Please model this.
Amino acid sequence: MKIFVDTAKLNEIEEACSWGVVDGVTTNPSLIKKAVDALKEKGKKVEMVEYIEEICRTVGKGKPVSLEVISLKTEEMIKEGLLLYEKFNPVADNVAIKIPICTYQPEATQSHYEGLKAISKLSSQGIPVNVTLIMAPEQAILAAKAGASYASPFAGRVDDLIRKKLGISSNKEEYFNFKLLARIIQAKLNKHLDSSLNQQISTLYQAEQITLDLEMANDQGISSGVELVKQIAQIYQIYRIKTEIIAASLRNAQQVREAAQAGTDISTIPFKVIEQMLEHPKTMEGIKLFSADVVPEYRQIFAK
Ligand code: G3P
Model:
């Protein structure tokens, strides 16, 4: 699995790249806003073109940097995609253009397929496109059909939606055990099946709020963000689709582990979550013990 850093903060990108584990970077307008706000807080002025050039240079050739368009209509998205690509790709030959899978809003004039058309147009010109805001496997199928190089399912935001439906108000950065939840619901269903084998399945589903649980604990058949990644990986594998999956909107280390197990090609990870991936209390304890046990004879080897 490749690791991308999900940030537009140059200091984080520089630091993470120095660790030797970074294969690319993803940005979006919200991440750019965070980076700009942080710099402004320090009284620094941001020259955006130079700033993005520096990101591309730091990440380096062969390691994609995703830059997102801001318009919602096909023609504008294509223009912006071409502009971003022509401006920044020459720096290190590593730019991918991020296009939303769908920009439809019921109250506005853009149609459902503006994103799709922009994705296929730019992809057909050989520009790597990263399709963003994917929340369902069907969207990932269309992204791949349109020729996208990358499809980015937003695992954390799907989790947010399911947690909201369930009325669970835990911190969105904390790991939530969706697998355990599924087992609880299954156990409830099994218990009922055991005691009422003669009942019609429809009656069973209405019983004990099983229907309610099943409806609440998923989004259109997707029981968690990681499950979304897994289903897309399964579909892409069946049809030998070349589009690479970028598991995105990951908020904790366990989610990264599960995305890897689900078969994602790439995980794009916030800087502080990469730090979290390194932490373990027994590692901290172990390092203290090793340090305390260093005998002078051994230390002498390292003396100049
Ligand atoms: O890569 C997508 C990511 O930046 C969105 O993350 O945590 O805002 O859902 P989040």
